[in-house]
Amino acid sequence: MESVNCTLFYVIIDKVMNMKHIFILKPNTSKELISCIVSSMQGKRYELRYTKDLDDARKIALSYQEEKEVCRLYAIGGDGFVHKVVNGMVKSHHELVVIPQGTGNDFARSIYKDLDAIKVFKDSLKKEAKPIDVIQCRDDLYCVNVLCCGLDADVGNIVNTNRKTTIAPRILQYSFTILDKIFHLKFYPTEIYTYNKDIYQGNVLICTFCNGHYFGGGYQAGYYSSLDDGMIDMSVVGEISKKELPYYLKGLITNTLHKTKKFHHFKEEDVWVKTSQYVNIDGEKYDPGTYHLKCIHNAIQLVY
């Protein structure tokens, strides 16, 4: 059995190293990481594709859609960067590697125990890809991690807007913003429904639609989510009173919201959400409105 496993291991490495490797990265990517990539790829087929702006990551990934051979695309950045690369890869046969180089790295937290970028890269060269789901939000918009439309969306959108004007670490930005927003509570009327039933209607504090597990730099959103179960995992916390604030704040900080009294959990393959609030998808801000969310099973080949 050991010799079989050893043979399989070398077959995987040989297969991976004979692929074309496309590294999609920002101009300010760690020089140490780039040096590691260049030295590891000597004699192999690879490209370094630098982005000009965030949406350029999607355009670069999209440019490989017609490539007949399977390529391995590396999204080297944070959650918004990964979001853009995924939106350029869906419906292709290529493989995705996520190299955490952001401040939140929430999707990476769902798939790695160690977020060290160099270690993740080196480990990926020894691994095969496995299929995972994505959530289709609109015809040309996909979510790989979390869509949210409650306090969590407000906080994510504020941090995202202010990320170029503040020097505080992003996890602290999230914490400070959460404290500010939760003490100035605002609830948004939200409707969640399927073809034949109403799931939730009312004001929400927290409202997440999850493929991954985390948002906001490590706060848990998908307590029961799975990347490959073909389902959208939904967590909702309804309207609360001011006297309940400490209880729910503690639940948010300690990742125990699912144990609180007003926590609701649902799983569906196909669901609509209607909100008058700007939503947040994988760390990026999107318009209010009605989103038809569909779990697209095995939509992406991910190395993890």
UniProtKB/TrEMBL annotation:
The alphabetized UniProt keywords are: ATP-binding, Kinase, Lipid biosynthesis, Lipid metabolism, Nucleotide-binding, Phospholipid biosynthesis, Phospholipid metabolism, Transferase
Q: Which Gene3D superfamilies match?
A: 2.60.200.40, Probable inorganic polyphosphate/atp-NAD kinase, domain 1
Q: Which GO terms describe its biological process?
A: phospholipid biosynthetic process
The record's annotation in PROSITE patterns points to:
DAGK
Record-given protein name: DAGKc domain-containing protein
Q: Enumerate the Pfam families for this protein.
A: DAGK_cat, YegS_C
Domain of life, per UniProt, equals: Bacteria
Give all residue intervals belonging to the DAGKc domain: 47-141
